[in-house]
From TrEMBL:
Designated name of the protein: Methyltransferase domain-containing protein
Coiled-coil boundaries: none
Record GO terms (molecular function): methyltransferase activity
InterPro entries the UniProt entry points to: SAM-dependent_MTases_sf (IPR029063)
């Protein structure tokens, strides 16, 4: 599909009554949800990457109190964290996208990933299997997430991740996966401030950000730096409620956390030769001219930002 067609269609759906339902049906028939098993496998891959980074940072899943920003249509990350032994996972979504049918499909499909979850999460395989069997039975019986997970998973939507109901120091890990690239800059700052408040001393944020042009996934003629051709005003023609892209570069997400007092312990941002070549052949708009090519070309970053254990000296 041509990217302009998709952008225009999504923008129109954003203004129509029932546009959310129509957009979901289009995703099921033509979008990422056509191959549910493949998409879920990709999410599990992302979760195992996060799990490795968290464990390298000294954060085990056993007993973990987590806060997820952006639940989505089905709760892959909360389920995987629960199966790995988390004590509590609170997951917020600005809009109530969670669907019972996809949640059931997620649980049933997760069975083949139990060994992966146990290994990546440092959990006992038998304990993972026991938790899974109980979860599956309850979800298929129609229980909500909190009941099905014995009180571990708390789903809140519509909910504002910049103003949570969580107490100060109540969370060990704040995390998101492919969410921050869809959030305005001022909201990201507010999320970081709230994360600093709810994190326990020494707690960490992990964010995986896909900051390339998402239209490249539907239009094979594009690469992920394509959207740098346009000014903010021009980009508004295709930016929309269903695929809002802030076009912030990888460095912004890390630097903003550092500026708010977090200590950066992981930053995977790398200028890949392929992206540098693509950038060299792209007529970049003047508003991006002040960003060095080695930063402008980066289209993904995983990072860990830790809340200091003690107050920084004035």
């Amino acid at each position: 599909m041509h990217w302009r067609i998709k952008g225009t269609l999504q923008k129109a759906l954003g203004y129509l009554p029932g546009g959310d339902a129509l957009h979901f049906q289009l995703q099921r028939r033509f979008g990422g949800l056509r191959d549910f098993s493949g998409e879920l496998a990709s999410k599990i891959d992302d979760w195992t990457i996060m799990a490795g980074h968290l464990r390298n940072a000294g954060r085990e899943f056993a007993g973990m109190r987590g806060f997820e920003i952006g639940t989505g249509w089905y709760p892959t990350f909360p389920f995987a964290c629960y199966l790995a032994g988390a004590a509590r996972i609170t997951t917020y979504d600005l809009n109530p996208h969670l669907r019972a049918d996809l949640t059931r499909a997620c649980v049933e499909t997760l069975e083949r990933f139990l060994p992966v979850i146990a290994e990546a999460g440092g959990a006992n395989p038998e304990a993972v299997r026991q938790r899974y069997d109980a979860l599956r039975e309850r979800i298929l019986a129609g229980d909500d997430l909190e009941t099905a997970s014995s009180g571990v998973i708390h789903y809140r939507a519509p909910a504002d991740a910049t103003k949570t109901t969580l107490g100060e120091g109540e969370v060990d890990v704040v995390f998101s996966n492919s969410v921050l690239e869809h959030v305005p800059a001022e909201v990201i700052e507010a999320m970081y401030r709230e994360s600093m408040r709810i994190l326990a001393p020494g707690g960490i944020m992990f964010h995986s950000v896909n900051c390339g042009d998402h239209y490249a996934y539907v239009d094979r003629k594009l690469h992920q730096l394509h959207y740098l051709r346009y000014s903010d005003r021009q980009w508004q023609r295709w930016n929309n409620a269903f695929l809002y892209q802030n076009r912030l570069r990888a460095r912004y997400f890390v630097d903003e956390a550092r500026a708010l007092g977090f200590r950066i312990e992981l930053n995977t941002a790398t200028a890949r030769p392929e992206r540098l070549r693509q950038l060299a052949s792209t007529p970049v708009h003047a508003q991006f001219a002040g960003i060095p090519p080695e930063e402008l070309c980066i289209t993904s970053v995983d990072f860990i930002a830790r809340k200091p254990r003690t107050a920084e000296p004035a």
